[in-house]
Amino acid sequence: MYALVEDGSITKLITNPKTMVIGDVRYPAKIFQLWSKSELNAIGIYEVITDSTNFKDEKWYINTNESYAFADNQVTRSWGTATPKAHADSLWTQADSDDGDLPDNKEVGDVKVEGLKTVLIKTIKQQASGLLAPTDWYVVKASEVSDYSVPSNIATYRASVRTKSNEMETLITNASNTPALETLYTYTTTDGVQSRPLGELPTLEI
């Protein structure tokens, strides 16, 4: 990405090389490939440098709009301070009711917007359910056929999925804030092995 700077101010962002009219001169798109940095700068065209210092993972944070600035013969693209997404649910309040904003199917104290904890726990439950589903038929058969029982390895696996799912949900519930949640999901490598504090749901060994 490039920017056109005129009289010390950014007047245009150039996302793709194209013919440019600067002042009374028309420049072909090829100048972006053929001209040096200094030659482009001489006519006011600067390559945009991205500063991602404040840009955060959008799974956990709400980033500001990007902004562009020209200083010291350089155009920089950057962001302001990111805001952590709410880790806890927000609830409908009496003030919402008094203002007439409370939906007819909701009561004071009901969840207004689900926080990250609720969303993440729902995801864990769905993942655990998806892992258990292929072996559900063993349980159904055992309930319908009197002389059949669930194989021990299947029973052990299903129990381990539930146990680990509960442990993961507890870790999420106990996280004090959004950065703590992010840490649970952040992988690190030790002795060539990747892992995260949250751990993983078990898989069935056949």
Structure in a nutshell:
With 206 residues, the chain is α+β, with helices and mostly antiparallel strands. The protein has helices at 31-34, 37-42, 94-98, 116-132, 136-144, 152-174, 178-185; strands at residues 2-6, 9-14, 20-22, 25-27, 45-50, 61-62, 67-71, 74-78, 83-84, 90-91, 111-113, 188-190, 193-195.
Report on the architecture of this protein.
With 206 residues, this protein is α+β, with helices and mostly antiparallel strands. The protein has three domains: 2-54 and 63-80, no CATH class; 85-114, no CATH class; 115-206. It is 35% helix and 23% strand. The strands form five sheets. Strands 2-1-5-8-7 form a five-stranded mixed beta sheet. Strands 3-4 form a two-stranded antiparallel sheet. β1 and β2 form a beta hairpin. The protein starts with a strand and ends in an 11-residue tail after the last strand. 9% of the residues are buried.
Features:
alpha+beta, 3 domains, elongated, 206 residues
